[in-house]
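Record type: monomer structure entry
Structure origin: computed from sequence
Chain ID: A
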Amino acid sequence: MEFDDDAALDTSEVQDNRSGTLGSIPGGGKTVGGGVVGLLVLVASVLFGVDPGLFGSDGTDSPPGTGTGTGRSAADLAADCRTGADANRKEDCRIVAVVDSVQEFWKQTETAAGTSYEQAPTFLFTGSVNTGCGNATSDVGPFYCSADDKVYLDLGFFDDLSSKFGARGGPFAEAYVIAHEYGHHIQDLSGTLSRGSGQGRNSGSVKLELQADCYAGVWAHHATTTPDPGSGKPLITKLTRDDIDRGLDAAAAVGDDRIQQRYQGRVTPDTWTHGSASQRRQWFSTGYSSGGVDRCDTFG
C-alpha cells in the first residue's frame, strides 16, 4: 500500500491520547450522544466490535478519553504527519492517512446518496480508555463506540494480530481493521447497528460484523480512485494483490472458529458473535470485488 507523497494529511481525523492527558488535535471530529448498543464477546477478547463499555467502570472518575500514556501528544502527531510521504514512512502517519481515506470515501458515497456523512474520529490510546460507552482496556481490541461516535485503537493490537492470532500482518491488514470499524460507524448512521444482538452463526451480531467486513472491502475497492478534496488526486496510489491477501488473512485470523480453536481447543458455533474465518473472508471479498454497498446486505 502506497500513498501520494505530496498529499496533505488531515490530522484532525485522529485524536491522540497516548500521552495520558485528554486532548484532541484542533479541529477534531464531532462527538454526539447515543445509547450503548451491545457487547460482543469472544473467547480471548472483544475483537473488531462495538460498544465494549458494558464491562463497567474501573472505579475512577476519569473523563471520557483518559488513558495511560507513553509520552506522545496530539501535537506530536500533527507535527510528524503532514504528507503522504510521512505515511509511507511511519505507522502513526499511515493510520492518519487510512482514516482520511476511509472517511473521505464514505463522505463522498453518502453525499452521492443524498445524505450527510458525520465525521467520526479515531482515538489512539495506550492501556485503557474511558469512552462514552464506559471503560475499556487494550484487551478488547479495536472498537467503535456509538455513544460518542469514535473509533478506539491501541496500536499495540497490530502486533497482537500477528503474535496472538497468527495473521501475516502488514500495512493493509491494519487498514482493513480501521475500515471495518468505520463500517460500524456507517451502520450507526443508517440505523443498522441496533440489529446486532445475540450469539450463533446466524445471529444479528454475526451479520453485523460480516457487514462491516463487507463495507471494509467496498472501501478497498475504491481506495485508489477516491479523490482527496485538497488535491483532487487519490490519497492511496497503490494496492497490490499481496495487500488484499493480507487483509483477507487478517479477516480470517479473527474468525470465531479460529480464535475458539486456538484458545479453548474446540469450536462452538452457538456462541459466535463475529462469524467464522471463511465467512469473514467471503464478505470482505464480496465488498472488494463488487465495490457496491448494496452487495453488503448480510441481513437479507
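Annotation 1: The CA atoms of residues 81 and 115 lie 30 Å apart.
Annotation 2: The two ends are 33 Å apart (CA to CA).
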